[in-house]
Amino acid sequence: MKKIAIATLALGLLSSNIYTEYNCYREDFPILHHKKDHNQFVFFDSGATSQKPNQVIDTVCNTYRYASANIHRGDYGLSLKSTALYEEARAKVAHFINANENEIVFTKGTSESINFLASTWGEKFLQEGDEIVITEMEHNSGLLPWIRLAERKGLVLKFIEVTPDGFLDLEQMEKVITPKTKFVGCIHTSNAIGTQNPIKRVIEAAHAVGAKVLIDGAQSVPYEKMDVRAYDMDFLVFSGHKMLAPTGIGALYIKKDVIDSVPAYQWGGGMADIIKVPFEDSIYHPAPEGLEAGTPPIVQAIGLGAAIDYLEEKIFTQPTKEYLASLCDRLITGLEKMPMVQILGAKEHLRKEGHVVAFNIKCIPAPRLAEYLDKTFNIAVRTSKHCAHMLARRLDYASSVRASFYFYNTQEEVDRLIKGVQTFIDEEFEKVIADEKINPTNCDSCMIREFA
Ligand SMILES: Cc1ncc(COP(=O)(O)O)c(C=O)c1O
Fold it and tell me: From 3.40.190.10, 3.40.30.10, 3.90.1150.10, 1.10.10.10, which CATH number describes the 20-49+320-451 domain?
């Protein structure tokens, strides 16, 4: 009994410590201090894009003020300085995920990186009849480029299925990956329901048959230290704007023994040494420079470098994942007390490893709740299928309300959301049912289908 009491006390101290540690970073985010009708702004949509700290905003502004020149093209001091800052940002990205600098290509973000790979590596190395495998959980950006490529080249596209409780079906995966499989694409953490996938197992299964693996890290790289070597990844993609950096910048990691054989995605200035006719005889810069045609997003890349500094120095030195999971736990516990609320995905898993909770109030179209939370409580949540249309079909929902957390969110904010949902049920439910002409006796399962 005594032991239990001490353990509970220790846990309590640990969690209260975690909360105070993170509160201090809110100062760095000017937007979090806005109020509407005395209601502090609550931002629960970091899964779509994160807020940006002053350190990143200042880096971007100061780069435009004092270091703005094109890169790799000028022999004067300012251009050399800008080039050095851009390449320093690449080195930071590489270090952040335990890669080498020459394995990092800057892109606009995750979607562009996946399109890049499908159009270059996929076009070159995949042949008619080859099998490619992706999961039903993919974001549409990890789905559509491969559907298009499969249709264009006559590839056989197969899917790792999702179980009704929101996990990848690993037994089915073992059957769907065969010696004919040449490529496997897997989302690390689901943006729609928050499941964190066992990518080590997926990568091992793919490598066992000689297939290359792409990991979509858009929802994992911002939340935990990633190590491409430990996982033996072939390709990793992620977006800067979801991890404190500006929009318009992302990174594509391509393993060293693959990158030199990957053709360019776009063609233009800055990539060629000697241009000849015929074209194939031209000599291009080695990767990554040879894969970045035209003026790249210079300042955005430097901003990403500043975001990585922030995460490495302040956030990843702490138990950030545990903290975010504790917010999920708090929200799930609050929502579970409301019989009208359905939570999507793997609740117990999210309590331990999540940063996203998706849910619905029975019978209520998700946008009606989101609009209410915004107007009445100044809380921003996202609704829709969250660009995961295959997953929505598999789990049979048309839309959900998604709260996605980052380290700057607090327990009090989660409590405000719980209160907002409860107040909606108490005060708005009947009105919305009448407005929308919904029959409330018909809402038992995933009623939201009706509002697709
Ligand atoms: C898992 C996942 N993959 C891909 C994307 C697309 O990222 P972007 O819009 O930055 O290209 C997102 C964005 O929400 C995502 O969450």
Answer: 3.90.1150.10
